[in-house]
Amino acid sequence: MLPSPPNISTTSFNGRTATIATADCLEFLGTIPDESISLLLTSPPYFIGKEYDESTDASDFEEKIDALIPVIGKVLRPGGSLCWQLGNHVRDNQLLPLDHTVARAMDRGASFVLRNRIIWTFSHGTHLRRRFSGRHETILWYTKGDDYFFDLDAARVPQKYPGKKHYKGPNKGKFSGNPLGKNPGDVWDIGAVWDIPNVKANHVEKTDHPCQFPIALARRLIVALCPEDGTAADPFLGSGTTAAAALLEKRDFIGCDISDKYTKLATARLQALASESLRYRPDRPVRVPTPNESVALAPPHFAMH
């Protein structure tokens, strides 16, 4: 299932295994059996001058995505999901939204359906002087076909006002919220529901990798889009965030990175997770309603869940 003979490491935790290889992404994906992956979640490198960049401009990047799409289509299960975690590229004070670039390539691929364009926001980052500071990134969620796996209940977030009731109609006076929580929507806003800050500076997950996304972000996607018996994958492994999230959520994982430096870093993080010493920031609600807000009081039937 995995390429040979590059460096390979395996780490087990929560009864599941993460396997990591040092390999080129296309070569790696070519070794994976067809229709064996439930979720491919990745953040591809995009010509910003990092040591691991394989492209130097937008056209190179788009060609790379074009080459990846059919290979990803082969390894994904019918009903499987593909998530691109994408930032924005700025050159000469001009913004290039990378989700637009990837969406064009995906449209040419023609075998995937776009389900959501998810925006996740954060309040910290570089402070700009000639533009508004960038405070969001994007996840494009595609499925392979229309009969796809989606576990909304696993990804629900706490109700902001669990005591809220219908004010009219046949259900007037009854509690209106879902006891399991609410649909998080397609904007994951730190100021409203959940705090998912980006990994910068003093974030507990910060490593030597310059472009990490948070474990909490990957966990939410994994529980919603990868069944418990499924396997998650990331062909641009980086610091191993998707791998750690998969093991935390009791899913198997396979992934690769072309850089031996980063596969070693990812392996070290997984070993820390296995020994329960990995530092990571869990999802948690930001706003805690005050006790005197009647709509914030959880009704008795919420306590059952």
How would you characterize this protein structure?
This protein is α/β, with parallel strands linked by helices and 305 residues long. It is built from 7 helices and 11 strands. The strands form 2 sheets. It has a 9-stranded mixed beta sheet with strand order 1-2-11-10-3-4-8-7-9, sandwiched between helices. Helix 2 packs across helix 3 and helix 5 packs across helix 6. The chain is globular.
**Which strand order do you get reading across the main beta sheet?**
1-2-11-10-3-4-8-7-9
Strand content: 15-25%
Low-confidence stretches: 190-195, 198-206
Mean pLDDT equals: 82
Helices, by number, come to 7
Number of strands: 11
Q: What is the H/E string?
A: EEHEHEEEHEEHEHEHEH
Q: How much helix is in the residues?
A: 10-25%
CA gyration radius, whole angstroms: 20 Å
Structural class: alpha/beta
Shape: globular
